[in-house]
Write a structure and sequence with these properties.
Helix 1 runs antiparallel to helix 2 and helix 1 crosses helix 3. The longest helix is centred in the first third of the chain and has 13 residues. The chain is mainly alpha-helical and 77 residues long. The two termini are 16 Å apart. The relative contact order is 0.21. The chain is globular and about 25 Å long. It contains three helices and no strands. It has a single domain, classed as ACP-like (Non-ribosomal Peptide Synthetase Peptidyl Carrier Protein, Chain A).
Length: 77
């Protein structure tokens, strides 16, 4: 399973929706996620990828789209 597929699975799990916008479409503006879902998504990402995300990075902007999440994770691994 690719990183993108893992991210999509996490977003689906956290959002409770069966599909998610791919690429650069905003997960927050499109209504798939809200700021209350961000901590759950971060926890799942940390667990899945074995990384620690510092509190200073906990902003919706860094995790706004599948592409941004994928880039962030690849920079941290």
């Amino acid at each position: 399973m690719s990183n993108q597929e893992k991210i999509v699975a996490i977003v689906k799990q956290v959002s409770g929706k069966s599909d998610v916008p791919l690429g650069d479409e905003s997960l927050f503006e499109s209504g798939y996620l809200d700021s209350f879902a961000l901590p759950d998504m971060i926890g799942a990402i940390e667990s899945e990828f074995g990384i620690s995300i510092p509190d200073s990075d906990l902003t919706p902007r860094k995790f706004d789209s599948i592409s941004r999440i994928e880039s962030y994770i690849e920079a941290r691994i």
